[in-house]
């Protein structure tokens, strides 16, 4: 199993300590040998997309719900959609896009973005090569 990590930093300071939490997800190394090229979209077949996406969304939802960050006021998780509301009433939305085999992200800071599974690094990345979880937590700290 190849280890992938969601790294994020909450810039909440308790006393003089900054808290950093690292979460490790396990994902098997992706090796594909398909005779039907139409089974592959954005480098993934549907079964692998469902597995990687579900694992990522479940872990991200758990992390957000347990977050010590005082910037997050509400986290709603339903049918493959994670909605995060901040104290300033800003809303971030992360949702599955099964037909495209992507995760879509809507942010009041950077706007809408699409994330594809990076087979080499085993992470969800956008066109700017930014990792989804890192971008989310960075932008939560900005609002």
From TrEMBL:
Keywords: Ion transport, Iron, Iron transport, Transport. Transmembrane segments: none annotated. It holds the Pfam family Frataxin_Cyay. GO terms for biological process: intracellular iron ion homeostasis; iron ion transport; iron-sulfur cluster assembly. GO terms for molecular function: 2 iron, 2 sulfur cluster binding; ferric iron binding; ferrous iron binding; ferroxidase activity; iron chaperone activity. GO terms for cellular component: mitochondrion. The keyword Ion transport applies. Belongs to the frataxin family. This is Iron donor protein CyaY. It comes from Tetrahymena thermophila (strain SB210).
């Amino acid at each position: 199993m190849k280890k992938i990590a969601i790294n994020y930093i909450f810039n909440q300071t308790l006393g003089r300590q900054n808290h950093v939490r690292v979460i490790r997800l396990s994902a098997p190394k992706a090796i594909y040998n398909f005779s039907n090229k139409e089974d592959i979209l954005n480098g993934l077949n549907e079964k692998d997309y469902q597995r990687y996406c579900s694992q990522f969304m479940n872990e991200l939802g758990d992390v957000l719900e347990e977050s010590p960050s005082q910037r997050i006021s509400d986290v709603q998780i339903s049918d493959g959609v994670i909605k995060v509301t901040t104290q300033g009433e800003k809303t971030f939305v992360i949702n599955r896009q099964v037909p495209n085999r992507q995760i879509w992200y809507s942010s009041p800071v950077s706007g809408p973005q699409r994330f594809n599974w990076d087979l080499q690094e085993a992470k969800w990345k956008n066109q700017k090569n930014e990792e989804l979880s890192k971008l989310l937590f960075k932008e939560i700290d900005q609002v």
